[in-house]
Amino acid sequence: MVTCQGVRKTYGGGAATVVAVDGVSADFAAGEFTAIMGPSGSGKTTLMHLLAGLDTPTEGTVSIAGTPLAGLDDRALTDLRRDRVGFIFQAFNLLPALTAEQNIVLPLRLAGRRVDRARLAALTEQLQIADRLRHRPAELSGGQQQRVAVARALLAEPAVVFADEPTGALDIATGRSLLTGLRDAARQAGQTVVMVTHDPGAATYADRVLVMADGRIRDELSAPSREAIVASMASVAV
Ligand SMILES: Nc1ncnc2c1ncn2[C@@H]1O[C@H](COP(=O)(O)OP(=O)(O)OP(=O)(O)O)[C@@H](O)[C@H]1O
């Protein structure tokens, strides 16, 4: 569903050049939940932005649903992201004047699509925000705002969901319900889920963990235990 080939991203120039992503090739299949881990500065967020078409690689290619992003103009790229991709990023980007529910259904309304009320109810129940739907973002805690952003990303069942540290602001129980929601999105709805996280516990929910260091994928683990993830992280750090 999402593929990248020989992707490289550098910032700056001359002696100050920073190589953020240094030749990454990977496939992210439909129905697969992948966690990307690695030390701070290893290139996780940059890689995810490249995969999502939010940033352009210096070299290499990225395709979403068989469409190479390099061939698209801004308009076509925006349409592809709107129709195929859901984002759960650290800045939740909720609109302050809208209620939680209005925020959640906004992408569907903008796309002129029908809202599946039963799915909305089930999703918000699972994410434990069903009783907060009439509140505006300012009246919600950080964790509740985050879950509103998750519901917004999942409701439309986009083919691909990108999540950057989605459990960062959550307590353990709500973090688990969010991760279960992401896992269900992959297993039951067949969505491709790509999550950047620092938390080995969160990564155990994924089918696969890619471990990055210095802009490269240094290890790939299949349905690993927490211990296996911690051991891999320690081995790439040296
Ligand atoms: N816009 C930018 N301009 C210059 N350098 C950048 C830019 N964005 C990222 N970098 C550099 O690229 C490298 C990779 O950054 P990136 O944010 O992808 O790492 P990360 O693994 O997500 O880190 P963290 O876990 O701390 O969020 C870092 O050295 C960072 O300083």
UniProtKB/TrEMBL annotation:
GO cellular component terms attached to this protein's record: membrane protein complex; plasma membrane
Pfam family, one: ABC_tran
Coiled coil regions, renumbered to chain: none
UniProtKB keywords: ATP-binding, Nucleotide-binding, Transport
Residues of the ABC transporter domain: 2-238
Transmembrane segments: none
MF terms in GO: ATP binding; ATP hydrolysis activity; transmembrane transporter activity
SMART domains: AAA
InterPro entries assigned to the protein according to its UniProt record, in alphabetical order: AAA+_ATPase (IPR003593), ABC_transporter-like_ATP-bd (IPR003439), ABC_transporter-like_CS (IPR017871), ABC_transpr_LolD-like (IPR015854), MacB-like_ATP-bd (IPR017911), P-loop_NTPase (IPR027417)
Superkingdom, taxonomy of origin: Bacteria
PANTHER family the UniProt entry points to: ABC TRANSPORTER RELATED, IMPORT ATP-BINDING PROTEIN
Name of the molecule in the record: Putative ABC transport system ATP-binding protein
Organism: Micromonospora yangpuensis
